[in-house]
Please model this.
Amino acid sequence: MRKLIAFMQTTIDGYFASPTGEMNWAHRNTGDREWKDFVEGNASGGGELVFGRKTYEMMVQYWPTPQAAERSPLVAERMNALPKIVFSRTLERASWRNTRLVKGDLIAETRKLKTMDGPGMAILGSGSIVAQLAEAGLIDEFQIVVNPLALGGGQSLFGGVGHRLPMRLMQTQSFANGNVLLRYAGAAVERP
Model:
């Protein structure tokens, strides 16, 4: 069975996006060499990337550009080359190279994808997809980067989850820029 990882950045007060959906705060601490090495290592890992429509639209506006290739050549190359899935019922087409559009039921389609042969999958951002798949017990690992910043409001990392999601800590790693990586194994959902 293919493994599904959710990679999310959050603020110290638990938001993955501002109230307006803005997430550029997650890219403000880029001067740390160890952090840059971590990001490039993650990008080199391979697999298939998974997005929701909103995150896909943000990513496709940046990663295929010359600016992205200049600022982060390795990450841009991998983001553009890796196979990608975008879940959306409203998008008409996915123009980013190596992207396929999936319009079916998120939970059913993800279950099907996990049973197919192929590389592991990584959800980048896409908070509503993470919440839905986490509640369905389909995420095998959560990689959460806590940024040293409080927004005071925004979109909660697990907003909309109606049940407890117990997790088992696998690893922590702190970086000089103040970011902290928390890796958790997903577990069965606890229903009351």
